[in-house]
Amino acid sequence: MSCVAAYFDGETLLTARGDVRGTVVAPRGESYGFSSTFVPDGQSLTYAEMTGSAKDSISHRSIAVAELLQKIHALLQA
């Protein structure tokens, strides 16, 4: 899970959360931390075995940031 926030004009707080579900496996790939032991649902590789761009496109951080950007865009359009 990853959470991000943005605070505007001293009044508006926007928050977003990104979650990725998956399976813990025996370590595979070159990495530290959980990246070598986590296979996201729908994938066959651990995060450590993926290219950086592939991992970034499905990571909990990218999901949270994308949601926050949508909220910022909606706020600015209002």
Topology of helices and strands:
Elements: E1 2-8, E2 12-18, E3 22-24, E4 38-40, H1 52-58, H2 60-77
Antiparallel strand pairs: 1-2, 3-4
Give a short summary of the structure.
32% of the residues lie in helices and 26% in strands.
The number of distinct helices, counting runs of at least 4 residues, comes to 2
What's the overall average pLDDT, rounded?
94
Spatial arrangement of strands, main beta sheet:
1-2
Strand content: 25-35%
Query: How many individual domains?
Result: 2
Strand tally: 4
What's the order of the H and E elements? EEEEHH
Round the Cα radius of gyration to an integer and report it. 16 Å
> What separation lies between the terminal Cα atoms?
29 Å
Sheet of most strands: 2 strands, antiparallel
Structural class: alpha+beta
Shape: elongated
Low-confidence stretches: none
Helix content: 25-40%
